[in-house]
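It would be a great kindness if you could assist me with a short task in structural biology. The matter concerns a single protein, recorded as an amino acid sequence and a row of backbone structure tokens. The record follows directly beneath this note:
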Amino acid sequence: MMRSNLGALLAVFATACTNSLDLDRFHTAEESSVENSSAIAINYFDVQFGAKGMTSHIGEHFELRVVDKNNRIQAKAIYDNVVGPDFGIYLARVVPKTNTPYRLDFWADHNRSGTYDGIEGGISEKDHAWRRVMADPLPDDMRFVQGRYELQFVHDTAFVDIDTDLQGNPITVTETLLPYSVKITGADEFAGKTIEQRVVDKVSTRLLGLHRQGAAKPEYTSTITGILDEQSIYEISIYVDANDNGKYDADDPSWKVDMTSDDHGLVSELNLATTPRAPIETGEP
């Protein structure tokens, strides 16, 4: 009888120890606190995207999407008015470790219609689009190094219709999330330079959107559709590529502000001339 009670006590003790090591519950608690957001950044991978030979797309709209296995767009990078044939985009903490495999769907608005129109038709009547799946075996031009996917894309004509799933079946890309639309003003000093913005969820620290404006004007509107929730706080980081080297340097003009979405998304205005400057982090090594 004593042996039986002892066994029961040991079983209870073991269960308590197991519960105390329940990492899922630990991470759930973390996600509820902005102060602990840096600790959960390991739940996401980075993407380092490089493109070469994009001569035919200079001046066009370019879009890179992070898409999950259920064909839902999880993040976007927009490059409006591509200024050169070779460029890179760094997306820190953008690919969740859950709901894999993810893929990169990217396209250039070659017919300049303002929307993705597929890859059928004459050379000037269609868009150019490509896909890379982030799953083993990785594509030949992609590798995984120290927590990031590195893609070195060289322009080709092996187009993939990104309005299809991984099996080639047509899909309807319906955006259920809200837009980021911020009018940049007071950029007279930086006219002709590249200005880049990052939109990060304040709680999870995950990057949801990046907007790059090539050859910026004193005033312009940066728009990324379908990336935001309502009533959430986002950290907006902005910098001007003053030395035209394609990345953020400590002496580049930069700003960091918090903005809160509503049921229309995040529609706002930011005056670079009157907003105090602040250092930022892009996550790029």
